[in-house]
Amino acid sequence: MAQSSQATGGLASIPALLQRNATLYAEKSAYREKEFGIWQTWTWAETEKEIEALALGLINLGVNEGDFVAIIGRNRPYFYFAMVAAQSVGAVPVPVYNDSAAEEMEYILGHCGARFAIVEDQEQVDKIIEIQEHLHQFEHMIYIDPRGMRKYDHHALHEYSHVQNQGRAAYDEFITDLKERREKLTYDSTCVMLYTSGTTGRPKGVVLSNRNVIESAKNASEFDNLTSEEEILSYLPMAWVGDFIFSVGQAYWCGFCVNCPESADTMMTDLREIGPTYFFAPPRVFETQLTNVMIRMEDAGNFKRKTFHKYMEHAKKVGGDILDGKPVSGADRLKYAIGNALVYGPLKDTLGLGRVRVGYTAGEAIGPEIFEFYRSLGINLKQLYGQTEATVFITVQPDGEVRADTVGVPAPDVEIKIDDSGEIFYRSPGVFVEYYNNPDSTASTKDAEGWVATGDAGFFEEKSGHLRIIDRAKDVGKMADGSMFAPKFVENKLKFYPDILEAVLFGNGKDKCVAFINIDLTAVGNWAERNNVAYASYQELAGHPKVLDTIQEHVETVNKSVAEDPMLSGCQIHRFLVLHKELDADDGEMTRTRKVRRVVVADKFKDLVDGLYDGSTSVDTTTEVTYEDGRKGSISATLELRDAAVVSTAAKVAAE
Question: Which of these ranges, 217-231, 321-335, 380-394, 624-638, has the smallest mean pLDDT?
Answer without folding.
Answer: 624-638
